[in-house]
Structures are given as structure tokens and as C-alpha cells.
Amino acid sequence: MWVEDLPNGKYKYCERYTDTKGKTRKVSVTLDKNSSRAQNEASRLLYNKIDAKLEKEKQKIEDEQNKIASITFWEVQDEYFSIYEETVKAKTASLRDTAKKKIRSLVSEETLLSDVNSVFILEILEKLYYKENYSYSYIKTLKASFNMVLDYAISKEYLAVNPISNVKIKKKVLTLEQREKKKEKYLERSELKQVIKDMAVIDKSTSLLIEFMSLTGLRFGECVAIQSKNIENNVLHINGTWDSVSNSKTTTKNIYSDRKITLPKRCLQIIDEYPLKYPKDKISKDNYIFIYKNNKPYNISVVNSRLKKINSSKNLSTHIFRHTHIALLTELGIPLKSIMERVGHNNPQTTLSIYSHVTEEMSKNIIEKLNEIDLLN
């Protein structure tokens, strides 16, 4: 304890102590005198004050611990998503909300956060993947959703360690049928021609749209978000994507997706041929190219429903035309890095899966051609 003289003639008695978090604190009392009796009285008051503060801190810690012990996984999930949905696009938030609902069908509302440990999560994911045959990519999505909530719980000091770090799901060995399905990620040239031809019978504008995607490798959202001002001569600036949830143009998927590509002549012809046009008095550089009847960009569900009408051995969806473009470029001998830049990939995994398969098929063709060569006759 030490004493400080005050300007008003009184005396401040001070003492330091260490709080429950290990930090050094200071308390003080002011008395009229600086005598032995006053010092004893000050010492008593200071230590009572310190005891009261420490008791209050301990009570606060106990209250927080009780609150944390009783908090449910659902409560933390709601707390996290109320912030998360303000930081992402509406479409991304919608996809995460779907995963959130799936998790809630597997984790009861009463489940405490403290009970969501690595064993708890692992048993859920193993059941879905190994017994109920959900796809590996879907399992990864659910695991990521668990991870985001639990990471948030750590930042709020509800948890000390994220149990997801101990959750490992080993990928199943692919069956022959599944391996063959991987080949269905893209269309061969002959298949693409037939799909475009068949779609032209169903709907001409959709036929032109999927042909354009096959020649550019654009994602569907990127394609329908193209505005007149994004095209200069034969160069297309892909600077956004159409968000079907907010019904508006938003930023691209990531920084790698914001790119410029050169359009082949056929793409420029498609834009000129596209049957749906704006009224003359409403034409502007802000106009979208691939519009539907309401002058709004095409809805993906409309295109996918039309693709279902085509008889094909492949599983047709809008994304297959993006993969088909990668296959076409591979056949043309374009380097992998150049393909990735054109389609806006920063992770080579998807590009490489198509690239490797096509080059494998090309190698087979080389052998077939070499076998046909007869150097003896």
C-alpha cells in the first residue's frame, strides 16, 4: 500500500492486486488523515474492496460458464447466420441456409453446443456418406457448414477448440459405373451438335444460349449477366453474375472470375441472331443480351427443364456446357493454364479432371492411328 497527498489536503491510499484474468489492477480510498490508525483503516477498506471486486469477477465468470454450458448448437447457428447472411450474396446465403436446414434435421433443437464433438459430427457424416450414399461433395458442404458455426463459437469463446479438425471422411473407392459417370461431365463434339440441334426444335433462343456457353465456357450466371456494354469489338468483359435469388447482377464468383476473353465469330453471330430483342426506345448499353419474355435474364430452371426434354445418355444441365468448352480447348491443344484463365478457375482440380480425361482419349486415338500405319507395304 502507498499514500498519495491530494491538493485538497486529504490522502489517497492505494493498493495493487491481480484480477481473475491475471491483469494488475489498482484500488484506492481517500481519508482525511495519514496516521497509523488511518493507515490500518485504509488497509481494511482496500482489502475489502479488492475482495468485493474479485468476488464480482468470479460471479461473472460463473454466470458466463453457466450460459455457455446451457447454450444450444441451434442458438449458436442462428447467431452466426444472422451475421453471415449480411456478408455474402443472396444466392450463397440461400445455399448455406439449405445446408443449415439439413443439419437441423440431424441435430435436435435441444442439443447443447458442448455435445457437438468430433464423434457426434463424424457419426452423422459417416451415416450420410457410407450408409445413405450422399455424395462426397455434399458431405464436404455439410462439414464446412459445421466448421463455420464452430469457428464462430471459438471467436465468441463458447468453445476452446474446434472439434471438426478431428473429423476425417475417407473417400469411397469409385465403382466402374461411377468412373463412367465422370466421363459424363462433358459432351463430345458429335453429342454437342445433336443437343444444340434438338434444343433448336424445342426453343431457338435456348439453343443459341447453350451454344454460346459451349464456345465461351461461361457459367450460366455469368452468361445471362452479359450486358451490351461488356462487349467491345470481339472482347467480352465478364464482370458479374446473375443472382437468381436477389434477381439482380452481382459481382463474379471470385477475383479470378472477373476476366476478359476473346469471342469467336460464331458468338458474335449468336448475339445478332438472338430472337428476343428490346423495344427500340429501350435499347441501351445496360441491356442484357440473353433475355427472357419479361426482358430479364434467363432463369436457370427454365433452361434446365428444357434440357431434360432432350434424349441423351448424358445428364444434361447448364454446367455441362462449361465442361464441354474445357474439353474442346483441350482437343485443340490449348495449355492447361490458358484454359484455366479463360474459364476463370483458380483451382486446377475441376479443369484438370476434364483435361486429363480428354488427353487420355486423345492418346488412345494416337495409338489407333499408329496401328493403322503399315510401313511394310
Provide the descriptors you would attach to this structure in a database record.
3 domains, DNA polymerase, domain 1, mainly alpha, hpI Integrase, Chain A, 377 residues, three-stranded antiparallel β-sheet
Indicate the structural class: mainly alpha
Distance between the termini: 111 Å
Strand content: 5-15%
- How many E strands? 8
By DSSP (H or I, 4+ residues per run), the number of helices equals: 14
Detail the poorly predicted runs.
none
Chain-averaged pLDDT: 89
Rg over CA atoms, rounded to whole Å, is 33 Å
Main sheet makeup = 3 strands, antiparallel
CATH class of the largest domain: Mainly Alpha
InterPro entries: DNA_brk_join_enz, Integrase-like_cat_sf, Integrase_catalytic, Integrase_recombinase_N, Tyrosine_recombinase_XerCD
Protein name: Putative integrase
GO biological process, one term: DNA integration
Family: Belongs to the 'phage' integrase family.
Give the SSE map.
Elements: E1 2-5, E2 11-18, E3 24-31, H1 36-70, H2 73-84, H3 90-106, H4 118-131, H5 136-155, H6 176-182, H7 189-202, H8 204-216, H9 220-224, E4 231-232, E5 235-238, E6 241-243, E7 248-250, E8 259-262, H10 265-273, H11 300-307, H12 319-331, H13 336-343, H14 348-372
Helix pairs in contact: 2-3, 2-5, 3-5, 4-5, 7-8, 8-10, 8-12, 12-14, 13-14
Family: Belongs to the 'phage' integrase family.
Pfam family, one: Phage_integrase
GO molecular function, one term: DNA binding
Describe this structure in words.
The chain has 377 residues and is mainly α. It has three domains: 2-70; 73-172, DNA polymerase, domain 1, CATH 1.10.150; 182-370, Orthogonal Bundle (hpI Integrase, Chain A). The protein has 14 helices and eight strands. The protein has helices at residues 36-70, 73-84, 90-106, 118-131, 136-155, 176-182, 189-202, 204-216, 220-224, 265-273, 300-307, 319-331, 336-343, 348-372, and strands at residues 2-5, 11-18, 24-31, 231-232, 235-238, 241-243, 248-250, 259-262. α12 packs across α14 and α13 crosses α14 (348-372). The radius of gyration is 33 Å and the shape is elongated. The N and C termini lie far apart (111 Å). It comes from Lactococcus lactis subsp. cremoris (strain MG1363). InterPro entries: DNA_brk_join_enz, Integrase-like_cat_sf, Integrase_catalytic, Integrase_recombinase_N, Tyrosine_recombinase_XerCD. It holds the Pfam family Phage_integrase.
